[in-house]
Known about the structure:
Blueprint: H1 2-7, H2 23-33, H3 39-44, H4 49-59, H5 71-84, H6 88-100, H7 105-119, H8 121-137
Amino acid sequence: MLAAVVAGVKRPKRVESLRGSSRSQRKEHTVSTQPAPSTAREVVRPVAPKLIDLSEKVLFGDVWERPGLSKRDRSLITVAALTAMYRTDQLAGHLERALANGVTREEIGELITHLAFYAGWPNAMTAGSIARRVFDARKP
Length: 140
């Protein structure tokens, strides 16, 4: 499963805040604070290079940097959406991002439990299994 491969990707140290910076400064700085290129993106790049370019520049370089929601909140929303839609290939990487953005393991557990009633038990059980692998890989 690709999610297990992505979970092992090393991530650079996170920068705490760029509030007060101009949008262009945030975008320039974002390139170095994004997660390391994922295996999934590198697998897809030869097939759909523009898709990867848009992911890196627009999604992670602009949308994730908008001031209306914190990165923590964006991570919670993204993990919830991926869980609800059963998008397991991307879930591990976004669980890693959520933890890096300040979401706790307990909050992830609550999110998964809550979604069981809205997105289905199998989706929640699979998300719980993926979260366990991510947590185990990050043991303190």
